[in-house]
Every structure is written in structure tokens, then in C-alpha cells.
């Protein structure tokens, strides 16, 4: 029987005993002894936890509040009328609230585990006899041909070499429509092969694959705490001792006032009871659990939509975004360029395409791909040497001993080559041979179907301004911006110019006293510096570069920019829930605290208010998770370096997790330890020269001193 079931049995047993004792004709010491049994059955763990906290000088938590309140109520019953029901009921309903909290958190953990089922258990390698051998994906090297059968997950990133099929990408992108793949298409790990047999040449090791990186992002997201979470942690540390001292003052000062200043008989029992009521309602459980749960649910809900947010701090920032800056190519446009016109000077069109395609033959840029596709005769006998790619300008190379330059107008000007503009709308690629202008090629990008909807949706969300930055010519940029409803466009920018422009926009917002955040959305390796400079950096994950994804705070796994508007709505919904829980929990508790202090609320009202507020706050928090559900399973772990390891833990409450984290960080040999309470994991980075196993044995002992019920599975 697991711990949650045992606690439920204890609660039911104590409730039954309490109901029976209500009709039992007992008196005196026998009555006290009889009522002590259900009290200890339902509350012994709370009492032990409070005692251990006092012993370790970490006394001020909700266990101490409940222990003092219920022991005080039992003592008051002995002193006054022998009615022990109230003290036991307080502990009983407190445990009901704790059980409900445990259930809600457990359900959220299961949801997030199901969400993360993108890690395959094996990869199929075809042996010489044609039989398939299942191997660990982590053992497969790049360049290996693997076989993916219908219904299986693609274990590693790669390129299809044989076969046709459709892929279920919902676990990665949140997109329910399958994606058709053919030989030559790139495929990502974590997708499910729906029908045809595929042979795939792997392009990355598993640790560098899409599935592994997504798992890492999701697992680490809860470690980056928002200002609201940090506030609640600090608030709980200060709040609980203040409440205890306030309760002591409430129990002592009014009777002493009656005795010494008014000269009357002090009403010790009445004020002691009010102080106990004060302690019961002051328990901060609703805040301590519901705020982290709200963010956790929000991060999980976003992940289900194909949006990976790297922490609740970034979710909080995304909710405050009022300025969005887009890169153009690959973000608002498909990055699929087509040659729409060829204008040679002293040669025919085929010769001009021949030169441009061969210079660009080793480039992965979308423009290079379009030139090679238009020429269609890449594998001829031309000798291409001394290839040099110049960021923001173009490419130089020697083709059959001729010096060829292919790039934009800046490249022509830098090389002192006279060129002329084109009346066609599109990206103009100029070509020069041996220092003389040879002509130009017009390439047009295709705008994504949902880009205009994305801009419109962002405006509906309350985003004040949407900008576009691009290295394209002003005419091309203006045409795209006009189609999409972009507020302002900056064109002909180098990668460094984009960083400068974003810094200017940030400075303008600061000068205007704006509290809103600026988000930049990009996909390419050249976007990584500007992504990291924005308040919220957003990368298009499915076709984005590793550098951009690494620098980003938010990753859109789908190439659809409309996902950004959805993510912002979810972030704002989560922040509304957080604010509702903070205001509601504190507001109701303050009201009942005041009513209890003046005698208008008894202990029954206090415990119902406390448990009720917590239940409502937790239910409200779980609304952030209410998004379409994927039918997936739990995921297994990943390999890590020897200096960084992740351990499964067992701990009941966020406060205990914080104490465990403090104890772990004080252990010699630990460079940094962080606990993810929602995923029940401890990530430890070790100092050089220490044995990880020995250090973790010491960490386990230190954590046991703080919380005996906790466990670290080594």
C-alpha cells in the first residue's frame, strides 16, 4: 500500500472512531484516553514532524502550527468541558487537505510524465542476415542506418533514405495533423511512424537529438522560479514565525490587560482558544502549494501545445510581453525560396545559374538550396575551391579558376563592383565573375499561411507593437510587412545590426517607463545573439538551429508563429490564476484571522476555511493544465555526466523540499543542488575531486536529519 492510500485509511479510521466516540458513555481519564487514539492515528506524523523541526531548529512550518493548535485544543478540553472533538477534527480536516494536495500534485506529475513520453526505448539496426536487432538509442552513432517500423517512435534525428510514411508529431509540436515524409526528408526523434517502413540515416547522437533536448528542457523548467514563486517562498519563511508570535501575544496580552490595567478577572481560556483558532487559520498551505502548482500546470499545458517554456520566470515574462519583434526568413516566411527571374549581363541564364549554384553548393542557407534546385545539375565536373562565406553579405569561391562572388548589394559594394537594381520584388542575388558584374537572380520567399493570423492574434492579446527585422532589401521587406500587418519593419540589417536595433527598442521602452516586456522570435544561428538579448527570446524549434534553441527562453516546436499567440494567452491565464490564488488565499485568511481574534470565528470555522481555501486554490491552479491531452506513457531517464547527476526523491511538501535543498547544498562536495518538487527529482552538480556516490550518501543522511520521511534513491 502506498503512502497516499495509507493516509486515506488513517483519515477514514480516525473519522469512524470519532463518530463512534460521540455516542460512547465515557468520562474522565477514560474519555481522554479514548479520544487520544483517533488523534494519534490521524496526527502522529504531524506531531513527529513538528518535534523534529524544533529539535533541528527549523520549527516554523505548518506542522508546528497544527501541533500547537491541536495539542492546545486537547489541553483546553481537559481544563474546561472535556469536549475533545474539536481538536481531533482540526487535525482530521488538516490531513484531508494534505491528502487532497498530494492527490492534485500526483495527478499533475502523471500528466507531465505522460506529456514527456517522447523518448524511445530502442532503435532497430538491420543485421547482415536481414534480422532487426534492438539496441539502446544512446549506443547508435551518427551515420548509422536504422529501421523504424509502423507504430514505432523515431529514436534519433536523421534523414529518410528509403520508404514513405506519415508521422504523428503531436508529442513534439502539439499539431494533430500527420506529416508526410519521403526519401531525403529530415525527421526528428520522438515522432511516431504511422504506416510505412522507414530507413533513416542518423545525423546526431541521442544526447544531441530533439527528443533528448526536449526532455532536458521540460525537466529543468520548474527549476527556474518566477518572482511570484520566490516571493511565496520568502513570505512563508517570515509569515509562520510571525503568526506564532502573534498567537502567543493574543493568548497573553488581553488577559494581562484585564488583570493589571482593568482590575478584572482574566479570561485565560477564552483568549487561549482564540489564539489556537488564530494558529489554525494562519496555516500557509494554500499559498505554498497552489502557486508552484499553478506555474507547473502552466508549463505543462504549454508543452502540450508544442511550446516549451524554460521556467516559470519566463512564463511570467511572456505574460507581460507588449512588444514582439520577428525575424523574417524562416519565422514569418517558410524559408523556402524559389528562383523567379534570372537576368544575366554577358552570358545566358543557365550559365549564370551554373556559377551561383556551384558557389553555394556547400551552403545550408535556404537561398543556396533554391539556387541548387533551379540549376538541377549540381554533380558536374566543375572544380569549386576556396569557398568563403561572409556573414550578411554572401559567398566567394573559385569555379574553374574564375573568382566568383555571389551575394547581396553590400557584397558588390565591398568588392568595388558596379551593379544595378531590379524592378522585380524579391531577394536579389548579385553575381560577379573576376571582378566584373555578371548579372542577378531574383529569389522570392513564401509567406507562411498563419503569419498574418499570428500578428492579428498578438494584437488581440494586447501586444501594442509588432516589428520585423530582416537582412532583405527595403522593397521586399515592405511588401511582406504590408501583407502581414506588421507595425514597423527594419530592413537590410546585418546580424549585429539586429542586436543593436533590439537594444534600441529596449532602451526606448525603458525611457518611456513601460513595464511591458519585449520578445524576439527567430530561427537561425545568426539569431542566437539577439534572442539572448531580448527580455523573452523565442526560437522556432522544429526548423531552428541548435544555437537559437539553446539561447532561447521559449521554444516553439512547430514552425507556426500562431503558436506564440497561444502561448501568450496560456501564460496570461496562468498569471491570472496565480494572482487569484494569492489574493483569494491571503484575503480569506486575513478576514478569518480578524474574526477569530475578536471571537466571531471558532476553530471549526478556521479549519474549514483553511482546508476550503487550499482545495479551491489547488483546483484553480489545475485549470492551467486544461489543454488537449496526448495519449502517451511515462518516460525513462537519460545519461548524464559524472559531475552532474539527477536522483529520484520522495518528499511530501514544498517546505520540506526547500529544507532538503538547503541541507544538500551545505554538504561538502556539492557544488549546487536543486530540487524539483513537482517532478520529485534532485539535480546535483559535484565539486571536482569528490566521489559522487560518497557525497550522495552524506547528502542523504543530512536530508534525513531535516525530514525523516524524505528519501533519495541512489
From TrEMBL:
PROSITE patterns: ATPASE_E1_E2. Its EC number is 7.2.2.21. Its main location: membrane. It is found in: Cell membrane. Gene3D superfamilies: 3.30.70.100, Calcium-transporting ATPase, cytoplasmic domain N, Calcium-transporting ATPase, cytoplasmic transduction domain A, HAD superfamily/HAD-like. InterPro entries: ATPase_P-typ_cyto_dom_N (IPR023299), ATPase_P-typ_P_site (IPR018303), ATPase_P-typ_TM_dom_sf (IPR023298), ATPase_P-typ_transduc_dom_A_sf (IPR008250), ATPase_P-type_domA (IPR059000), Cation_Transport_ATPase_IB (IPR051014), HAD-like_sf (IPR036412), HAD_sf (IPR023214). It is a multi-pass membrane protein. Belongs to the cation transport ATPase (P-type) (TC 3.A.3) family. Type IB subfamily. This is Cd(2+)-exporting ATPase. It comes from Selenomonas ruminis.
